[in-house]
TrEMBL record:
Residue stretches spanning the membrane: 61-82, 102-123, 227-245, 300-329, 341-362, 382-403, 415-433, 445-469, 510-530
Keywords annotated in UniProt: Glycosyltransferase, Membrane, Transferase, Transmembrane, Transmembrane helix
Name used for this protein in its record: Alpha-1,6-mannosyltransferase
A Pfam cross-reference name: MptA_B_family
Record family assignment: Belongs to the MptA/B family.
Organism of origin: Streptoalloteichus tenebrarius (strain ATCC 17920 / DSM 40477 / JCM 4838 / CBS 697.72 / NBRC 16177 / NCIMB 11028 / NRRL B-12390 / A12253. 1 / ISP 5477)
InterPro entries: Dense_granule_Gra7_protein (IPR008120), MptA/B-like (IPR049829)
Major place of residence: membrane
Keyword Chloroplast: no
Subcellular location: Membrane
Leader peptide range in chain numbering: none
Length: 550
């Protein structure tokens, strides 16, 4: 399958998509290819006519789900305290029907997840016929576009970005003061910030605020424009992921479309990086792009790639370990001697230190960010095993009459978890350098994903989008069916765990369950309808024939 059929896929809307798909259909065989001619592992055969029809239905099913999510976001998204659509005759209707909007959003969420799972059958590694890159790219655009234009969902962190950016734009230090102290409680950018973050300093790197101040300069106090501009920044990160992922996959012997399906089209990416507007998108994108650029056979490419990873760390420091595994990959290419590792490590360390110093000084914020890296630990996340174990230990102490020592127990278990995560990362880093396999790049990239995943799980706070830091590199690094099955199941579980408003529904849990039940009924009816349509098109009867009348 060539890529020429996609030259105009993003410019002609649905009509352009249909024309491009028609070109794919004309180029693909209409019958099963002969044995031994169905395509090599590097260049699989295109989908046949029946599979292209399945792809069309799956793509449209997911697009409808994304549109429903966008409509539901008007009334059940992570909106500010005073939504701007309130009072409008049509757009304000979902805001006046929050439970119905939540049901619509959940229906869309379930449809996107089901469509993603169905699409996975056409992107599975080892399959003789695979979805083409152009078909997958069009699907990604169709599913992401409605979410990119809708209000944010699943998290209200973007409102913290806006308030902290305003603090930096005023010449104050966001690493010292929180939104309430700097802007006041009645400021329009403060009102949308979750209560837990109103008095806390920012935990993000100086490069992020260099970008964010430009957004503040352009948007001012306009919350909607600020959200759209921050989403553009997140989409740049997603674009870097889409650019780097298939290239890294080819280096590791993984089908690019298989890596993109699991890494870029993942519901966690759509829900939390695109819709949720998390700056993790930019950090992950720069990390992957830097890794890919540095692996090219030029010394200047290694420096440029390391600098890009340093920029990612200047947005979120959690991407910094990628430099260690990059050093292992480059040292192995040079011969795998300890001296090679030392020289490469010294070069990358110099780039890393120089890059962070430059980002800190040029931003005008200095090095205060190094003292606020643990701000997120204020949240007691039950998804973190270390924190959950500490909460359990504190609860047992209370039940036994030993007093409330929950904070001390949580601090202890978190410390043990961080220690285990650090030791595991160090061991995998050494293993990625000393392990000699046939694929000399796969081990460092795979070890990077595994180490980041374990470090996050052992860490004090776990959010669903944190695990993308591990899942996306692993999507490009391995063909393991066991990993892909586990990653698919975990992605579906986490995608369903966070409600669209991003809130906990304290004392109103019944609203959540009412919306979920209504959404399940709607989705089941839609699945029944889609199945009847497919059966009718394939020539199967959809109902028993009536007996003849006398």
């Amino acid at each position: 399958m060539t890529r020429s059929a996609t030259a105009h896929s993003g410019t002609a809307g649905n009509g352009g998509q249909d024309v491009a798909d028609e070109r794919d259909e004309r180029r693909a065989p209409t019958a099963e290819p002969a044995a031994g001619r169905i395509g090599t592992p590097d260049e699989p055969a295109p989908l046949d006519r029946g599979e292209r029809r399945q792809l069309d239905v799956v793509r449209r099913f997911g697009t409808v789900g994304s549109l429903l999510l966008a409509v539901g976001a008007l009334g059940a998204g992570a909106n500010p305290v005073v939504p701007s659509v309130q009072g409008l005759r049509l757009l304000g209707l979902p805001a006046r029907l929050p439970t119905a909007s939540l049901a619509v959003a959940y229906a869309g969420l379930l449809m996107v997840v089901l469509a993603w799972l169905a699409l996975g059958r056409l992107a599975r590694p080892g399959r003789p016929r695979l979805i083409s890159r152009s078909q997958l790219d069009r699907t990604l655009v169709m599913w992401a576009a409605p979410l990119a234009l809708a209000p944010p969902m699943f998290s209200r962190d973007v409102y913290s970005y806006l308030a902290q950016s305003e603090i930096a734009a005023r010449g104050l230090d966001p690493y010292v003061v929180g939104p309430v102290d700097a802007l006041g409680p009645d400021h329009p950018l403060t009102r949308g910030v979750p209560n837990i973050w109103r008095d806390t300093p920012a935990p993000y790197g100086p490069l992020f605020f260099s970008f964010a101040r430009i957004i503040t300069w352009a948007a001012g106090d306009n919350v909607e424009l600020g959200i759209l501009l921050h989403r553009v920044l997140a989409l740049v990160g997603v674009g870097l992921i889409v650019w780097a992922l298939p290239r890294l996959a080819r280096r590791c012997g993984v089908q690019p479309v298989s890596a993109l399906w699991l890494g870029a089209l993942n519901p966690l990416v759509l829900f939390h990086l695109v819709s949720g507007v998390h700056n993790d998108a930019l950090a992950i994108g720069m990390m992957l792009a830097g890794f890919e650029i540095a692996l090219r056979h030029r010394r200047v490419a290694a420096v440029a790639g390391a600098l890009l990873i340093t920029c990612a760390a200047a947005v979120k420091i959690t991407t910094a370990p990628a430099l260690g595994f990059l050093a292992a990959a480059l040292a192995r290419r040079r011969g795998g001697r300890i001296s090679d590792l030392v020289r490469v490590a010294l070069m990358l360390t110099a780039v890393f230190v120089a890059g962070l110093v430059a980002a800190s000084l040029l931003s005008g914020l200095g090095f205060g960010w190094t003292e606020t890296l643990d701000t997120a630990n204020k949240v007691k996340s039950w998804m973190s095993p270390a924190t959950a174990l500490g909460m359990l230990g504190g609860g047992i102490g209370i039940a036994l009459g030993l007093g409330n020592h929950s904070d001390a127990v949580i601090a202890l278990t978190r410390g043990i978890g961080l220690g285990l995560g650090g030791v595991t990362m160090a061991g995998l880093l050494w293993l990625s350098f000393r392990s000699w396999g046939r694929h000399r790049v796969r081990e460092p990239l795979a070890c990077l994903g595994v180490s980041l995943g374990l470090f996050i799980l052992f860490g004090p706070v776990v959010h669903p989008w944190y695990l993308l830091l591990a899942a996306i590199p692993l999507a490009a690094a391995t063909n393991s069916a066991r990993f892909r099955t586990a990653a698919t199941g975990i992605s579906v579980f986490l995608a369903l765990m966070v409600p669209p408003p991003g809130s906990t529904f304290d004392n109103r849990v019944y609203v959540l369950w009412q919306a979920v039940v209504a959404a399940v009924i709607v989705v089941l009816l839609l699945l029944w309808f889609v199945r009847r349509v497919l059966l009718r098109e394939q020539g199967f009867p959809t109902a028993a024939p009536l007996p003849p009348t006398r």
